[in-house]
Amino acid sequence: MSDMTLTQAADEIRKMLRGFKAVEQVSAALESVGSIQNAGKEAEAQLNGLKAEIQKAQEELTFAKADVLNAKDEAKKVADAAKQKAEEKLDKAAEDAAKIISSATDNQCAATAKAESIKVEIADLNAKKEEVAKELADLEGKIAKVKAQAAKMLGG
Description:
By secondary structure, the protein is mostly helical. It has a single domain (2-155), classed as Helix Hairpins, CATH 1.10.287. 98% of the residues lie in helices and 0% in strands. The protein contains two helices and no strands. The chain has helices spanning 2-88, 90-155. Helix 1 packs antiparallel against helix 2. The two termini are 36 Å apart. The model has no long low-confidence stretch (mean pLDDT 87).
């Protein structure tokens, strides 16, 4: 009788060891899922940061456009004033108008260059956003696979 009890005890211990191995595998899978989730959260945080940078760049572009419009308005005002002075003092007004128009053109060129630079930054940020979105999609796919594997391990 005592041989039967020892054999049964050995079988029970083997069954328990298989259960512990399954628990260890589930633990490893859950750890992988947690790691992937953390990477997803980091990617989402980066995406949010990029969105904020894009918003800021768009705001800067809006201000740059306003600067260009203001520079154009200022140039028009200066040109009108130069015409009035030309009637009174043609030589002096021509010299003053040339200086003012040159300054306004420089300002307009600078504002246009700034706007173009911001457009390039926006394009770069959009490209980065797409890369991050692709990485996030890849991570979400991996998470789904790990979840499926974990469900499979837990379910069967």
